[in-house]
Amino acid sequence: MTMEQEISLGSEPHAMFVSYNAFDLILGELVPQMQEVSQSVYGHTNPARIEQLGWRVGLAIVERFGSTKGDTLEIMKFICKDVWLVLFRKQIDNLKTNHRGVYVLTDTQFRLFQRMSRPTPSETIAMATPYLEFPAGIIRGILEALGVKASVKAETPGFPTVVFHITTMH
Known about the structure:
- Helices cover 47% and strands 19% of the residues.
- By secondary structure, it is α+β, with helices and mostly antiparallel strands.
- Helix 2 packs across helix 5.
- The N and C termini lie far apart (44 Å).
- One of its GO terms (biological process) is endoplasmic reticulum to Golgi vesicle-mediated transport.
């Protein structure tokens, strides 16, 4: 592994590392497998199962990083800067808020979409959409672990851009 392929999950000298190639491969297999299992068990795909796995990862990330002090906006900045850098090698490109509990996070070059393509843009977006449940779950898990109840919805308005709409519940 080179430093370009891995990043530390903390400031500890012996901190665990995330292999970006392994992360990509795991997610590349996770979504189709969860869709297949959901189809065979429930008779339809259930994106909530993928989101729930992401939620669990979000909880674990907070355990690993430790508690982040501050208000909800500070927590969002933590997600946009620190968490996104560890998971996707870059920071979120844009964070907007109405200061009333609604946040919009935009990643204009979403890493998980780098290797996805279909003949038409609409087919590519349809194929890629299920992969958004996992990072949406990660965001929701981080927020919940830090005491913020929220709903997280993800969409791709145009490939490879991803927008996460977060609404906090007071």
